Description:
The protein is an alpha+beta fold. It has one domain. The chain contains three helices and five strands. A five-stranded antiparallel sheet has the order 1-2-3-4-5. A hairpin with a 5-residue loop joins strand 4 (68-71) and strand 5 (77-79). 26% of the residues are buried.
Amino acid sequence: MTKSKITLGDNAHSFSEHIICGLEAAGVDFDGLNLSYVSHKDDPEQIGFGLLQVKNNDDTFVACFENGLHFGNSETIMVCDERQPASKLAVLILVSVLSGRPVHAPECPCCTEEA
């Protein structure tokens, strides 16, 4: 991955550093994972770091922004906070990449109740 002058917030930066370090340590080829800086769909000024959990499978895309981990087109997120820091979310996604078993967006309790 090439270095750039994009500035990430603390959570997105921590997530990206843990993901890259883990992938490098495991000897994983980055090709097909689409590691990238992305802008938030609702706030283009907000920059996050994303990747595919399964190579060349766009349905497994996740991106970490300051508020948490976003899953593709889903509206639900896994929140970043003191109990669940970005580093923990990175480990979860790193395991999904290494195992080939992608993590899916958590179900929203309110949405499940309405259905």
